[in-house]
Specification:
Blueprint (H helix, E strand, L loop, with lengths): L1 H18 L15 E6 L1 H4 L4 H11 L7 E6 L22 E3 L5 E3 L8 E4 L12 H17 L3 E5 L10 H16 L2 E3 L1 H11 L15 H16 L14 H19 L2
Parallel strand pairs: 1-2, 1-5, 5-6, 6-7
Antiparallel strand pairs: 3-4
Length: 264
């Protein structure tokens, strides 16, 4: 009975995905991003920062790709909370960093960021009083980062644990915003829904039913890695300390989600 129920859920999810808008932007082009600013809220900074887990996945894949990230976050923030242009001011963000021996290193950068990964508040794209701001600032922030030679990327957040209907709504909102602004979308919310359908006993949420457990953050990182770099995380040796079976499940879910989302 349980297998049948899961199969039915997956079938309904697939039909819903077919009925929704499909993404027009499939990748970031031939040159893979070596630097990214993650501009958002606590969904990014939980569990020691999702962007750092992306970096660990890159380091573990032995590709030799250099990766630098900056996490610019405010708890509860939406698109309109961030003064995105100020993040590109000279001699400020990323002017210096710390090496493996904790020495200060002054950076000489040709370009501040290759990509800016932008996330609105978890309800803002759907809220009757805030969804107009989501649309307005999706364009404004995309235009801003492009002025500095940076590619905008939207991070599709996930449904609350007790509001699964948010999945399709957020997917539609972010995909449409991505198409309207020529931006790549990372389908993290769809990955959460797929994992829950396949393995409901694996908890992706902390007690507040919206923030991620370590497993949730790892799934988001694997999905981000797969979407940005078009590489499969399956078999990656970096597991964020999760047991091998859980990490393998989340790696598979991330790759399946990205392939399904971007297919014609």
């Amino acid at each position: 009975m349980r297998k049948l129920l899961i199969a039915l859920v997956l079938g309904v999810s697939s039909l819903a995905a077919l009925a929704q808008t499909k993404p027009m932007v499939k990748d970031l082009g031939a040159e893979l991003p070596t630097s990214a600013a993650y501009i958002g809220n606590s969904f990014f900074y939980y569990n020691n920062g999702m962007p750092g887990h992306v970096g660990s996945l890159i380091n573990a894949d032995k590709s030799g790709l250099k990766y630098r990230n900056v996490m610019i976050t405010m708890g509860g923030s939406g698109f309109d909370w961030h003064d995105v242009e100020s993040y590109f001011r000279p001699n400020a963000i990323s002017r210096y960093s710390f090496d493996a021996a904790n020495n200060v290193v002054f950076n000489k950068l040709d370009k501040l960021f290759d990509a800016a990964v932008l996330m609105d508040c978890s309800q803002c794209p759907l809220h009757p009083q805030l969804k107009g701001i989501f649309t307005e600032y999706a364009k404004k922030n995309s235009d801003t980062v492009r002025k500095f030679g940076t590619k905008p990327v939207f991070f599709m957040s996930w449904a609350y644990q007790d509001k699964p209907e948010m999945t399709a709504q957020l997917s539609e909102a972010y995909t449409k915003a991505g198409n309207d602004n020529g931006a790549l979308v990372i389908p993290a919310g769809l990955a959460f829904a797929r994992s829950i359908a396949q393995k409901p006993e694996l908890n992706l949420y902390v007690a507040d039913k919206r923030h991620p457990t370590l497993a949730g953050t790892y799934l988001a990182a694997c999905t981000t890695y797969a979407a940005l770099y078009k590489r499969s995380p399956i078999g990656n040796t970096y597991t964020a300390g999760l047991d091998a079976a859980t990490a393998a499940h989340l790696q598979n879910v991330a790759w399946e989600t990205v392939q399904d989302y971007f297919k014609p």
